[in-house]
Amino acid sequence: MLGKIIRFIFFGNYFVGILAVALTLEATLQLRLPFNSLNYYLLLFLAPTIYYTYAYNKVSTAPSTTNPRNQWYFEHKKFINWSQAVLFISCMLLAINLLYQNFQHILALPLSYWIAIVIIIIAGGLYYGLLPKSFLKFNLRNTGWLKAFVIGFVWACCANVLPLIMLKIETGVGYHDSVLWTWLFIKNWMFCTVNAIIFDIKDYPTDANKHLRTFVVRYGLRRTIFNILIPLLIIGLISLGIFASYKGFGIPQVLFNILPFILTIYVAYSMHRRKNILYYLMVIDGLILFKAICGIIGMQFVH
Hints:
By secondary structure, this protein is an all-alpha fold. The protein is built from 15 helices and no strands.
């Protein structure tokens, strides 16, 4: 029974929705902003859940003895189609309610906000090739090494850009500490990019057969771990220390922000041993949740 619940949460991408909300709450507290409406957080939970489930459901058209997730999608095809319809309708109702309550504020958004919205939508759509091919055939997923940076970029936008847009829409309040915002955006971008590179290790044989030049395919597993992942994380630690000193962060806040980098270095080092799909979904993606929790706890020591 427990195994079924775990597969439902992780294969059904509900954990992805939790990650989106957790990263947003972390960024909101770190930027010392007011919280967005419950309507927005529900929408934020549902949208990535639907997005990822649609993408995986589209390619899981046959039973698989080697991929438990594809097998789960094949066995639960009817339930997934039904739940997707329910979640999509709920998502649309929430979006319509948000639009109805804030229509004039949305129309009054500055041009820079609209540019940010368009960039996020296009990046998210191109990654899984969700845009019609008659419109644009380019698929960021097939660019190999660029894929991880696109994933990190979309998640950083979810955590650091969308809340500011919604805050402007719902309250009219803008944010002006560009130095702190820029550093947090880059930190989230790089952390989620590293996470995506680690996750690519799972698809190494498939990506190699498809000639998809991810970091793992291009450089091999060992070089990816020791020449790319660990150096990036060490650079992240050094930049964290420099920025913490510049901003005058307290020791507890710094320690809690260091912990996710330390744990990710350990996990990256351990990736030379092959793992199953649930390990990647629970532990690798779980690093993002751990980062969000540490960031939230760290802010409790700020006065």
